[in-house]
Task: structure prediction
Amino acid sequence: MLKQLFKKVLRCILYAVVILGIFYYVSFKIQSTERVNTKGQYTIQLSNNNEKQDKKVYKDNTSLDDKNYVKANYNKYMEIYNNNKDTLILANRDNPLPTDYKPSLRHICNGRLEASNELYSSLVQMLADAKLQGYTYWISSAYRSAEKQQKLVDEDVYTCMANGMSYNDALEEVYKETMPAGCSEHQTGLALDILCSGNSVMDASQKDEPGNKWLRKNCYKYGFILRYPEDKSGITGINFEPWHFRYVGKEAAKFIMKSGITLEEFHMALEQNV
Ligand SMILES: [Zn+2]
Result:
């Protein structure tokens, strides 16, 4: 009798062990699947206790949730904008510069060109550091007046018309690459076309030059951004220009380049939240 009771108790314990084993196995599987599903995100463990880990999954390392993320970034946008209003001025087809806009200029490149006072010391430093790495450049364009910009447009239109295009078609073609007068950021004095020594062709071949790669990688450290990136022509309205760099100041350049946004997107973000 006692023996049978003992056997029953033993069987119950055995069942309990098997059920608990299955339970732990299944819960371990679910945790593993969660880990796989959070690929691209990362998990922060708030406790070192291996048995009971208090985990929170974040979309990035800056915020607790989407709402706070947007708010935190918006505040950053505003802070950067307020600190750098002058250098963050937007000039494009939809945003012509004020007709009375007058940058304070100084000569660069031994008097060959003019550019904004704002960028001078940063440019000198950037070019000096690039030279230490063995890279030298030719700055082909810096500040352009509205009159000069109009002249460039007229010349290109004339060339297209000489090749048989109508005036309207020629103008449309030219505006794909060249901004109308008043809309070019070269008019701010804050933009530079920097070509690599040994390659004076202003086309996509610049991006394969080691000197251009160095500039694109390091320009933000000196306050410059690559203004018309390869994958953003739909936003900027300008084809990829690996040679065109725009000074916005160190704080803004770091934020823009590290965020992978354009100046247009920076301004859009400001407007969306105002
Ligand atoms: Zn340019």
Observations:
- The chain has three domains: 2-58, 66-144+184-273, 147-183.
- Residues 42 and 58 are 6 Å apart (CA to CA).
- The longest strand covers residues 191-196.
- Residues 141, 186, 191, 193, 244 surround zinc ion (CB under 6 Å).
